[in-house]
Amino acid sequence: MTKGKLLLFIFILSLSSCGTAVKTLAGFKNPKVEKKEELVSFFAEVLPSQKTYFMTVNEVGNKMDIINNIVLGLNSEILLFNSSTGEKYCYQGTEECGGIQMQNAFKNFDQNYFTCKDSSGLNLSSYLEKIIDVSGKKIAKEELPKADYYIFQNWNKYSGSKKKLQEDVNWLLDLKKNSELNVAIIFVNGDMLEEWGLEKNGELPLKFRKENGGFSMTFGELPLKK
Questions:
Q1: Which residues pair with 37 in a beta bridge?
Q2: Which one of 156, 197, 201, 224 is least enclosed by Cβ atoms within 10 Å?
Q3: Are 156 and 191 in contact, with CB atoms under 8 Å apart?
Q4: Which of 223, 213, 225, 199 is nearest to 67 (CA)?
Q5: Distance between CA 6 and CA 13 in Å, rounded?
Q6: Distance between CA atoms of 19 and 35, rounded to whole angstroms?
Q7: Distance separating alpha carbons of residues 67 and 52, to the nearest angstrom
């Protein structure tokens, strides 16, 4: 695959703070190809009481599917859905900080979150088509915890240390514990998986550049199996 530049400006801010994106990006490593079983063990050391799900591809080795998963795994947007209607909810306030948006989701949900549609038409059903459990099984809505809303929270190994992930997870769970909002948090891993058709121990070079008030991401060649 030829090298390319994702036409996307991203603010990758840690959940629990609103420091500069530059500081956060400094902790990034080039994503490496992982196995689900090893990621399950990694996550269990951070949050033993929770399970993690994974993204899947429609076609093994499909470059666009893989790139779309990488972008979705990097996205700092809160993925929040109504459990009954499946509709996506978006933040309607003025704060750009992901941490403040998350706090407002738990404290003042009705004043800050409303149904919305994006260009992809993403809803709960279509998002569940993108994720699987460790055995490769897709997740039915009926298997999710009972709640009024679902937040799908991305995590990955390459964006920071295990300690930082632990801090972010604990911060998020504390928000839930101290809130009256009936919401379930579903953790989804965003690392590149060998089963997508990628080389074992392969790596994807990433470079970030500050540009027009955001950050553009330039990526190298995907480590596709030959």
A1: none
A2: 201
A3: yes
A4: 223
A5: 18
A6: 31
A7: 21
